[in-house]
Amino acid sequence: MLDKFNTTMDNIGDKIRKKRISLDYSQAYIAEELGISQNAYSKIESNQTKSFTLDRLYKIAEILETDVAYLLDIERNIIINASGSNYNSTISGAINNIPDRMIDMLKEELENIKEEKSRLIKIIEKLTTTDKE
């Protein structure tokens, strides 16, 4: 199972390239939307860049009119493996074998969400105390 997820991460550029071509988008267009050079974007598609931030991955998915799960083949891998005899352990195994760099990206995104939640709570508290005065 770990090999399937590593292969997915190693080939994410291929998946991104195929999706871009299917939409008839140029590398220059995607690079401009991402705010990076065409050369930097080319490295993503050729799997030379493996250090995606979760934000970058989400932005690529958005530009390509898809979602991160599609780019990572997560749904396909889980569905294929779920057809086996032990559905629960297969999904559990899939979750337990997510590559460390993906887990790190998800942890970073979770921290960003927590910070945003705290910021919004403070704003709401400030607004509600201002309304009472």
Give a structural overview.
With 133 residues, this protein is mostly helical. The protein has one domain: lambda repressor-like DNA-binding domains (434 Repressor (Amino-terminal Domain), Orthogonal Bundle), CATH 1.10.260. It is 77% helix and 0% strand. The protein has helices at residues 2-10, 12-22, 27-34, 38-45, 54-63, 68-72, 74-82, 87-96, 100-132. Helix 3 (27-34) packs across helix 4 (38-45) and helix 7 packs antiparallel against helix 8 (87-96). The longest helix is centred in the C-terminal third of the chain and has 33 residues, at 100-132. The N and C termini lie far apart (59 Å). The model is unreliable at 1-7 and 76-95 (pLDDT under 50).
Task: Set down the secondary structure blueprint.
Layout: H1 2-10, H2 12-22, H3 27-34, H4 38-45, H5 54-63, H6 68-72, H7 74-82, H8 87-96, H9 100-132
Helix pairs in contact: 3-4, 7-8
Instruction: Indicate the proportion of strand residues.
Output: under 5%
Mean pLDDT reading: 75
Class computed from helices, strands and strand pairing: mainly alpha
Identify the CATH architecture.
Answer: Orthogonal Bundle
SS elements, strand count:
0
CATH superfamily descriptor: lambda repressor-like DNA-binding domains
Helix percent reads: over 70%
What is the highest CATH level, the class?
A: Mainly Alpha
Low-confidence stretches: 1-7, 76-95
Q: How far apart are the termini?
A: 59 Å
User: What is the string of SSEs from the N terminus onward?
Assistant: HHHHHHHHH
Shape: elongated
